[in-house]
Amino acid sequence: MILWFTLAQVIVAVAAGLFCAVVGLAGRRPSDFTVGSLALVELLLLAQIVVAIIAPLVGNPPTGSMLEYWVYLVSAALLPPAAVLWALLERSRWSTVIMGIAALSVAVMVWRMHVIWTVQVA
Fold first, then answer.
1. Is residue 86 within 8 Å of 96, Cβ to Cβ?
2. Which of the four, 23, 39, 75, 107, has the lowest number of CB atoms within 10 Å?
3. pTM score of the predicted model
């Protein structure tokens, strides 16, 4: 994984998570801004999938378990769409909070993926 891209993903996911959680706890329903913040998180995760496919081919293989890495990546990529789907089905303040929790979960998962790729020895 690329460190600056990992940090960018974590920062965006934390910002989106805090934004959605604060807006949801303030009583707001899902809006274009909250859903858009999760769409940005998802876009970065899709870019990470491309990076994860190309990186081993150009000489940057993971030091940890590739299976564990891909399970984290696929799971993280499924969280934002699931949270947005929930928000569209149940348009309440709590669905906005759930989107925030999903984005914060993605931040933790992305950092764990970085640890698997660079630090952990299989």
1. no
2. 75
3. 0.91
- DSSP state, 29? P
Divide the 122 residues of the chain into consecutive groups of 10 and give the mean pLDDT of each group.
Answer: 93 97 94 95 96 92 90 96 94 93 97 91 64
Burial (0-12, 13-18, 19+ Cβ within 10 Å), 80: buried
**Distance from C-alpha of 17 to C-alpha of 11, rounded to nearest angstrom:** 10
Contact 20, 97 (CB under 8 A): yes
d(CA 73, CA 76): 5
CB 105 within 8 A of CB 72: no
Taking CA 83 as the corner, what is the angle to CA 79 and CA 88, rounded to the nearest 5 degrees? 150
Q: Domain tally for the chain?
A: 1
Domain range for 59 is 3-118
pLDDT, residue 122, reads 58
Classify residue 42 as exposed, middle or buried by CB count within 10 Å of its CB (0-12, 13-18, 19+).
Answer: buried
Q: What is the structure's pLDDT at 119? A: 85
